[in-house]
Amino acid sequence: MPRRVRRRIRGNFEKVCFKPCGIPNHSLDRVFLDEDELEAIRLMDYEGLYQEDVAKEMGVSRPTISRILKNARAKIADAILNGKSIEIKRFKN
């Protein structure tokens, strides 16, 4: 069973949801992004950090960041290409 490493997440992702325009949310399929996936996207794609720096910032290994980014980008692409809403799934503390 994989162990769950506590990751450092600095972004404030309270009540974040994105959806296609003009379609009620209740009629859309949803894609759920974990907080760590959104944080990795924020650091890598928005802040412009390298994977090694993102890994240090989040307190995980570089291969873990690579896997997190791959999963996050696949979910985002699925939502954009298939007209799904994106919701942030918060970890329980």
Order of helices and strands: EEHHHE
Largest sheet: 3 strands, mixed
Side by side, the strands of the main sheet go 1-3-2
Cα radius of gyration in angstroms: 14 Å
Instruction: Tell me how many strands there are.
Output: 3
Structural class: alpha+beta
CATH fold assignment of the domain at 28-89: Arc Repressor Mutant, subunit A
Distance between the termini: 20 Å
The CATH architecture category of the domain at 28-89 equals Orthogonal Bundle
Query: In the CATH hierarchy, what is the class of the domain at 28-89?
Result: Mainly Alpha
State the gist of this model:
The protein has 93 residues and is an alpha+beta fold.
Explained architecture:
The protein has 93 residues and is α+β, with helices and mostly antiparallel strands. The protein has a domain at 28-89: Arc Repressor Mutant, subunit A (Orthogonal Bundle). It is 44% helix and 13% strand. The chain has helices at 35-46, 51-58, 62-82, and strands at 17-18, 30-34, 85-89. The longest helix is centred in the last third of the chain and has 21 residues, at 62-82. It is elongated, with a radius of gyration of 14 Å. The two termini are 20 Å apart.
